[in-house]
Amino acid sequence: MKLFEFQAKEIFRRHGIAVPNGTLITRRDEAASLGPPLVLKAQALTGGRGKAGGVVIWDGSEDVVTLVERLLALEIRGEKVRAVLAEEKANILHEYYISITVRGTTATPVLVASEEGGVEIESVAKETPEKIVTIEIDPLTGPKQYQVRALAKGMGVSDTRDLQKVVDGLWSVFTACDATLVEVNPLVATPEGFVALDGKMVLDDKAAFRRGELLSELKAEQTKRLDVSLEEVRSDTITYVPLDGTVGLISDGAGTGMLTIDLIRDEGGVAADFCEMGGFTSPQVIYDAMSMVLADEKVRSLLVVLIGGFNRMDEMAEGIIRYYEEHKPDIPIFVRMCGTMEEVGIEMMRQAGFSTYDDLLTAVRAAVTGAAGGSDD
Ligand code: GDP
Ligand code: MN
Fold this sequence. Notes:
six-stranded antiparallel beta sheet; four-stranded antiparallel beta sheet; 25% strand; binds guanosine-5'-diphosphate; binds manganese (II) ion
């Protein structure tokens, strides 16, 4: 899940990283009370705002409401601007780059920093790779002091202690949120020390089992406060591929999903989609998967194939029931449910008025018949 700059900065603040004081504006009339000088920053789930005119220094000469209105109407790299962050203007001495991410090949965290911030790090890496410092972090101990000293040297920073504070803060954010990316571009040196002038964070949806509360708070902030649709914040553990048929399909494994597509075909039906939730799910993930699959008007029946490993059937039942209660879709649902916590899940489904199957083929047949408008009993 991607976070907005203002969300990342709020998290930075809680972990001891200095950020400018700011106010979030979601409607133009809220801008009327602002006083100059401020930096107005368009909030969209993408970078490159500077180039697209999404960062404006307001000195008071222009009407702020008009300015905010213009920023709110912007679209940056295809992403709508959802709000404007009005911040105190920072007094910049130098712009640096710093981030922690996961190196794919080793699945270990790496710290990447550069004396050249405020520009795209990809172009720095291409044109002046010697200006990029990379440090491998031991996930058990975090960044060590000698590594921060090396980092400071590589970045040309003399105040190692202040940099240490930033690195400690970033590591704390990275681990506490199970992030896959925490990026500050630029991290600026000011007369008062380092300040994170921008913030980008991506959280690992697969960590929902232990960061559920954090993820749902951030998600609610995006959907309720900023009008971001569920599709846009949907957990990236869900793979959804629309197909041509009428049997809506949700599975908790890619192999099972593909097998079920074939079985549906064998029974004379056609799947309306391939929708796979990944192994670590939650009530919200299956709820989101149902929103996606049932948004397709071709769908005439819904087949959910669950084989609980890490995935808990009580949680799946909770999500399915909540979806049906909130949306009351006029579409029959056929659930094959087995594995972890199946007794509880099946009982929850029964009490809510849904029967479940333990045999895959029977469930497939019922769903194909259901899609054709028939009944299996
Ligand atoms: P991005 O283009 O989406 O990455 O937006 P940033 O928030 O990183 O801002 C882009 C650039 O605007 C920064 O690199 C700075 O040069 C400039 N900028 C942003 N905030 C301030 C500020 O408070 N004071 C000054 N002087 N410049 C700023
Ligand atoms: Mn930036």
